[in-house]
Design brief:
CATH architecture of the largest domain: 3-Layer(aba) Sandwich
CATH class of the largest domain: Alpha Beta
Number of strands: 8
Largest sheet: 8 strands, mixed
Helix content: 40-55%
Low-confidence stretches: none
Number of domains: 2
Mean pLDDT: 96
Length: 255
């Protein structure tokens, strides 16, 4: 089926979901956001209505998708008119479905497990969409909607979704921090971080061929204490030296 969708929020997640939902043939009905200009810009892409906090949310939406910060759900839910028949859902990894318990209609979760930026809209067909619901109607609608925008749809509980989000912090956020530290070190040495891009890309591509522990390499994996000691001596920054030591010790203890 094709649905009329209202978005509360106009940031990274809302922008990406709006584009893929529109591409799948759904109607973007309305965009509501604290930032009126951002709401206007996103709504204009689809000929949708827009408004700010306090604006009326139209009652003809089939689905209302809240794409807001984890601390803003109470405010976002207060915008939904009483007696709404729309399925209300949020898009957060760590937030339980229980945050929607005060809503009188059916509700659920539609969580894309991906790092999204509104400046670079992604096709989500190969991105896992994790779905949860609290009733038969919300189940049917959210699974149908998810199937229309992704080939990887998973039924995942709030507890397990939170675990996926935690693991993603390690796999994505902490990994990117390592890139930041690598770049900072090389810039301080007058060297070019771009020369690391091939090894970064190769490391990521290997994950398609086997489990991560299969591909662990480096001096700590080889228990090459001579190289580790040399590296430690090269690091003038005590915080960076401490990170290097802690990570090396962890790998040494795992090897």
């Amino acid at each position: 089926m094709k649905y009329k969708i209202t978005f509360i929020g106009s940031g990274n997640v809302a922008t990406n979901l709006a584009y893929v939902c529109d591409k799948a043939g759904h109607t973007i009905n309305q965009v509501i956001s604290r930032n009126e200009q951002s709401a206007k810009e996103l709504a204009s892409k689809f000929g949708a209505y827009y408004g700010t906090v306090g604006s009326e949310i139209y009652t003809d939406a089939d689905v209302i998708i809240m794409c807001v910060s984890d601390s803003a759900y109470a405010e976002a839910m207060s915008l939904v008119p009483g007696g709404s028949k729309a399925v209300l859902c949020h898009t957060s990894g760590p937030v339980s479905i229980d945050v929607l318990s005060s809503y009188t209609g059916e509700s659920g979760v539609l969580y894309p497990l991906q790092s999204l930026r509104k400046e670079e809209v992604k096709d989500l067909m190969q991105v896992p969409i994790m779905v949860e619901w609290n009733g038969s109607r919300s189940k049917d609608i959210l699974l149908d909607l998810a199937d229309s925008i992704s080939n990887i749809v998973r039924e995942v509980s709030s507890e397990d979704r939170g675990k996926y989000h935690l693991a993603a912090v390690f796999a994505n956020n902490f990994t990117n921090l390592m890139y930041v530290l690598s770049e900072q070190y090389l810039v301080e040495q007058g060297l070019d971080f771009k020369n690391l891009l091939p090894i970064i890309q190769e490391t990521a591509l290997r994950l398609k061929q086997g489990a991560p522990d299969q591909w662990q390499t480096g001096p700590a994996k080889r228990k090459d204490m001579e190289v580790i000691t040399k590296h430690m001596a090269m690091l003038d920054n005590p915080e960076l030296r401490a990170i290097y030591k802690q990570l090396s010790d962890f790998i040494l203890n795992q090897a």
